[in-house]
Amino acid sequence: MPERRRWTQHGACRAVLLLLAAPLGLLLLIHPGSMVGADGHYSHPLLMLVMLGICSGFIHGLGFTPASVWARGLIHPLLSGCLLGYGYWLLMQASA
């Protein structure tokens, strides 16, 4: 009988996070001006959270599972998914 895994360890969850993190990461790398707000300035605390979501999305999407409890909480797929969603929401607000 195959070993049961948590839903966060399945390949589909990892692929979705990687596919969400890659375009947002490339956009911030190539054209960071796209995340400028309506006032013409960056919101650095919010961008740090979005970058944490991008990094944790890449880390989890590539298959790394940390041994430390606090690191597992920091790279948890739900947290990174929420932060990536917030990053896409910020991008929509900046382009509107």
From TrEMBL:
Claim: Membrane is one of the keywords in the record: yes
Assigned keywords, A-Z: Membrane, Transmembrane, Transmembrane helix
Transmembrane segments: 12-30, 42-62, 74-91
Superkingdom of the source species: Bacteria
Alphabetized InterPro entries for the sequence: Cyd_oper_YbgE
The protein's name in its UniProt record: Cyd operon YbgE family protein
Organism: Pseudomonas idahonensis
